[in-house]
Amino acid sequence: MKLFPIFADLKDRPVLVVGGGAVAERKTLALLEAHADVAVGAPELTPALADLLAAGRIRHLAGRFDPAWLDGAWLAVAATDDRGVNAAVSDAARARRIFSNVVDDPELSSFQVPSIVDRSPVIVAISSSGVAPVLARRLRERIESLFDHSLGRLAGLAERYRARIRAGHPDLGARRRFYDWLLDGPVAGLLRQQRPEAAQAALEAALAQPLAPAEGSVVLVGAGPGDPGLLTLKALRALNEADVILYDRLVSDDIMSLARRDAERISVGKLPGEDHHATQARIHALLVEHARLGRRVVRLKGGDAFIFGRGGEELEHLRAHGVRYEVVPGITAALACAAYPGIPLTHREHAQSVRLVTAHRTGYQDNLDRPGLPRRPPTPAFYKGVGQLDPPAPALAPHDPPAPPT
Q1: What biological-process terms (Gene Ontology) are attached (predicted)?
Q2: Is 71 a catalytic residue?
């Protein structure tokens, strides 16, 4: 992480903006939104800045930059078109240990101003560390479309009722479930409909009722081949709602970094040479144990849980013990491995079907039709074959293709 993200409280705190043009005007308006005490240092001001001065909303330090302007400032912004002046502001701020931003000049800046999605009090900030501001702006545009403008009012409502929610639900798990209801249920819907009074009444009614006991559940999530970009939105949502995550050895660190940070994480990966039956029995026991404690459990598997992932066995165990479950499919290895080099698994001129085969066997059971593997049209995709290549290898030896029909 190149920069440490921070949200600064600038209310009534002195901030210096050096420059009196259009860029300085934009920075000044943003700082005023944060209720900063803004002083603008410049020989002249734009009409809009002059209006702010006349209204008593800013102070004006007339003339060219003087390091004394930084006395008492919490941070500084250099927004002139003269790099020499901007460098002088940066040097003087650094000498005083004051964070400074030089607009569009990361080398001279000790902090960056991010692109903002404002749903106050909720604020989403996007930064490219100053190297690609256009990319940050594009990301902001996308994120803007994801969050309804009622999100700010919902956060404000949660803030006003925070003490009552905490008092009514002292247990952390119960309080988290109540917040989930608040964010996903009728209160949020009423706010989206511009009905704030009805939303507040619904929240009051919910606080007057005891919270139902938590019902645990398990979600089998396919993590895909390891690329976080191939994780489904539903899988990402499950990871962010999980209380407990049981994850396999092949699940990538990039995928795990997307999970809720305070979720309990339990590694249940199987290692070559160990008793896989005992490991699977432990997984079954953990799933039931945590679900019965009222927790939301994510069973995170590489690829897809139902393609040689023993997901079927785990669902059978959950069903036998009356545990509620859900399945979120993932992109299986055969699809991903073929897609990356651009190899189609099916092609109307070459292969009309796909055959998914595992080289891993249970005990001595082996029902694989090896002589039939090289025949067309199926495309064979082998799983778990690295340690057991010898048996299927002869069956995969090159064969002369059949002669074309005459």
Answers
A1: cobalamin biosynthetic process; methylation; siroheme biosynthetic process
A2: no
* Catalytic residue selected from 37, 243, 248, 304: 248
Reported as a single tens digit per residue, the pLDDT across 227-240 is 898 898 889 989 98
Give the residue carrying structure tokens 């005023």.
Answer: 32
Contact predicate 336/225, CB 8 Å: yes
Q: Which one of the listed residues 270, 275, 369, 384 is annotated catalytic?
A: 270
DSSP-derived letter for residue 8 is -
Q: Output the CA angle 180-182-185, nearest 5 degrees.
A: 90
String of DSSP letters for 121-157: TEEEEE--TTS-HHHHHHHHHHHHTTS-TTHHHHHHH
Whether residue 248 lies in the annotated active site:
yes
Query: Residue 339: how many CB atoms within 10 A of its CB?
Result: 14
The angle subtended at Cα 369 by Cα 364 and Cα 374, nearest 5°, is: 135
Whether the predicted pLDDT of 277 surpasses 80: no
* Number of Cβ atoms within 10 Å of the Cβ of 314: 22
Report the predicted TM-score, pTM, of the whole model to 2 decimal places: 0.57
CATH homologous superfamily for the domain 14-113: NAD(P)-binding Rossmann-like Domain (3.40.50.720)
Yes or no: domain 217-333 corresponds to CATH 3.40.1010.10: yes
Positive or negative: CA dihedral 312, 316, 318, 322: positive
* Helix or strand holding residue 113 (H, E): none
